[in-house]
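Whether sequence alone determines local backbone shape is best considered at the level of individual chains. The sequence in question and its structure tokens are set out directly beneath this paragraph.

===
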Amino acid sequence: MLLHAYVLDCIGELCLEKQEAMREIVQKVYGGGPDWRTTIRTTLRLGESLDGSIQGMWERNQVVAKERAVTLTADDFADMIVQTNFAQFLK
């Protein structure tokens, strides 16, 4: 849930209400300041360029989906990214 929300927020698809909920959850569990994504990156030792990389992947995958006449939803993309790139954190 947390990593899924992280990906959605990186691509601008996490509503303000859920952004606030994630901030509160992350601060309660991990501490940190108001930027909950920074806290997650620091806690999981992820690079600062991750957000931009995820945004770039989203944009490229949207182009591919359009070329193939398929729909790639933000939720499906987030699931794909989490399963492919963050599996070690899901155990």
Notes: The mean pLDDT is 94. The first helix runs from residue 2 to 10.
